[in-house]
Amino acid sequence: MYVTHLSPVQRMEEADSKRSSRNPTPVMSILAKDIGDLAIKEKNLYSPILKTWHPLASGVAVATLHSCYGSELKQFIAGLTELTPETVQVLKSADKLEKDLVNIAVEDSVDSDDGGKSLIREMPPYEAENAIANLVKVWIKERVDRLKGWVDRNLKQETWSPGANRDNFAPSSVEMLRIIGETLDAFFELPIPMHPALLPDLTAGLDRSLQLYVSKAKSGCGSRSSFMPELPPLTRCEVGSKLLFKKKEKPQNPQHRGPQNGATNGTDPLGLPQLCVRLNTLQYIRSELENLEKKIKTCLRNVESAQADITNGLEFKFELCQAACQEGIQHLCETTAYKVTFFDLGHILWDTLYIGDIASSRVDLLLRELDPILETISGTVHIKVRNRAITALMKATFDGFLLVILAGGPLRAFTRQDSQIIEGDFRSLRDLFLADGDGLPEELVDKASSQVKNVLPLLRTESEGLIERFKRLIADSDQSRTASRGKLPMPTTTGHWSPNDANTVLRVLCYRHEEAATRFLKKTYGLPKKL
């Protein structure tokens, strides 16, 4: 005697009748379970009898059930717009039902000629996992887009003010990392079976958002080159004049003048304290990346489907942000250093240092202005990047010192005796960064100051010796081959100052306050005696 039960068509009609209910999702899950139960009954009760008429009675039955539920599922998936727990429940129920139906079909057709292949072809996959994956990708995109929008909005309002927290980094960075942590928590709370497969999409999106934050944190700050002054043309002052110039020339780079105390207004987003906060912020983000990676590993360990991936060494790195932080810290160190040297302290370098009487325009004022700047950096910048920031400032200061000597404009002229004063000033500048052993390591200072140290001996070399060195360097260079017969070519300015660079030697001659240098420059290049 047959057991009375609803037919597949009746099951579908019952689902249709409930489709208008407020919560249709559970209906699809219930329907999947009912059809699974129906398939088991079909296999156990009816198929053994029906095999008398059809060798694949169970297979045909479950293929029909598969098709009927598939039609309902297709309509359900077409109407999905977002990922909800109910949606995932239905899709997981559909996936389980499909696997059960396929197993029954395979078992029933194992002895058939084609092993049940033709029957399986009549059961196109539901692709429930793909549907889940697509919804998760939409969820990820929405979260990432929301975070990018947040970065755009909040960094426009960020003031980069020190003192907002104990470690002097931007509050927006703390908030951003909190949002990322909550996003990761929400992702691992999704009731889905493929966290490891979809996690790369999420981490890549978060990585790009972090990279965007880092990029915006350093944008608009300028660069090393934007603060470097243009070199003035080579010329001469009148030798023998009590005044080394007829009238005071206009500043070499008026747009680079800074305030007299070497510090900017506290509200200036590009002031020294604010640049220090930007540096700290990038260092903070870089340090927190490791914690984010540890958090991901911990979450994965709690996901059963991820155990095999963890065993195989699955790793998720925020490589874009890591590289952006590394480059950004270097960029901000250099930018801060060259802004301080050539903008904030430009008035000392160009308008004061070695102008007029060398003995009364020495480096002391520059040292006094540098001291509080070093204190600001030491007191504000995180210890892990502090030495990098101070080293960059040291290199910029040495560059500025050398530029004054080699490209300080026609207001400056040096005698061989002045070289002793300049070398003493240079030692004082080095000592400032050594700070009696409390500053930078001596080997680091030696390395950064090597270029200045190599050039300074030219200042005490006799003019005749400089002229002979210059001629020899020109003769050994490629430029001499293209020069007109009997004339020395003008060497190219490379900015790589060296005693073996013809342009460097020529500049020392141009600023040499001595008759022999004047005659040589006038005869060789027609450089004027006076402005």
Description of the molecule:
- This protein is 65% helix and 0% strand.
- The protein is elongated.
- α6 runs antiparallel to α7 (171-189), α10 (272-301) packs antiparallel against α12 (319-344) and α18 (463-476) packs antiparallel against α20.
- It folds into three domains: 8-126, no CATH class; 133-458, no CATH class; 461-531, no CATH class.
- The termini are far apart.
- By secondary structure, the chain is an all-alpha fold.
What's the short version?
This protein is an all-alpha fold.
Helix content: 55-70%
How far is the N terminus from the C terminus? 121 Å
Shape: elongated
- pLDDT averaged residue by residue: 83
Number of strands: 0
Total domains: 3
Q: What structural class do helix, strand and pairing data support?
A: mainly alpha
**CA gyration radius, whole angstroms:** 39 Å
Low-confidence stretches: 1-5, 238-266
Instruction: Give the number of helices.
Output: 21
Largest sheet: none
List SSEs in N-to-C order.
HHHHHHHHHHHHHHHHHHHHH
Q: State which percent range the strand residues make up.
A: under 5%
The quaternary organization reads as single chain
